[in-house]
Design a protein that fits this description.
Blueprint: H1 2-46, H2 49-58, H3 67-91, H4 94-141, H5 144-152, H6 159-183, H7 189-232, H8 238-241, H9 254-278, H10 281-318, H11 325-346, H12 351-376, H13 378-390
Length: 391
Amino acid sequence: MSQYSDQLLALGAQYGIPLLKALAIFAVGWVVAKLVSLAVSKVLSKTDWDNRVATYVTGGKAKDLPVEEGVAKLIYWLIMLFVLVAVLQALGLTIITEPLNALLIKITSFLPQLLAAAALGFVAWLVASALRIVVRNLLTAFQLDQKVGESTGDVAISLSKTLADAVYYLVFLLFLPQILDALEMDGLAPVRDMVGQILGFLPKLLGAAAVFFIFYLVARIVQRLATNLLRTVGFDALPQKLGFAGPAEGGTSASVAAGYVVLTVLLAMGLVQAFNTLELAVVSELANELLQGLFNILVACVIFAAGLFLSQLAYRALSRDGRSPTLALVVRAAILIFTGAMALHRTNLAEEIVNLAFGALIVGLALAAGLAFGLGGREAAARAIERWQER
């Protein structure tokens, strides 16, 4: 009998005590997990930070999500995972506890990096929120939305909110490399490098925007000055002098159109300078070619306009009082053809075709004049030849 009791005591000491120890650990751990999760749920229900973060992440649908309950359950099961490992170790099941221990070691070793990244993210959020409020209040004080709405005709534009949001996300972008470095994850190296390249390109982008904005301001001032100056010197009457009809009622006058041309040219120059500031070789080269093409087209228009003016002037001078109307038409056509060819040549559009067509036209006119003179003056030429023979 004593032998059986000794065996039972040995079995109890071998299995009973570890089992009781495991049950005690489980009970205490369960109580702690419940208390901690309940405390977290109460704290989150008293604050609004979790709802703000969830609203930002879910796009405004956080009210339909039990945020406090979800966070509390996450903490509960995380604590219970540690409790489970302790229970299994108390039972001596090392085969199961070894992989779980490795997992928990990785989680606990990553917690400092995660907390550091979270702290940096919180600081970034504070700074970004403060700057967004300051920028929006300043722009609202300057009545930026009203001024933009009056100039564009769209009162619904909220440029101050857009710029404030841009500053908000820019601050997060500036903090992002430090947050990624705090995580110390090699897998995030490509993301960190990409963010670094974006931040390195950002000063060039801001410089290009500043250059284009300055050109825009200068272009608007020059446009108004050019429009007023041309209107003062009587430029609006130039189309009628060239033989064109005047602008329709409520239409754009010649001085206003010329002002828009000046504005377009200056904005194109500003765009080229902005691309040069970005130091993008391909885009800068393309922009320079487009600007050169625009300049050539503008010069071609000036040449052809001068041709129109000279042809009209010559036509009026030759056809005055009914004198030589045919000659006046020929001279006007010749001037228009010559200046038109010069304008097309200036645009660099199919230079060989333009030169060939112009040369063929000149040769054709010379041949026609020669034939007309020869056929019309046959009798005079015959008499001249007879006189030469008599001598």
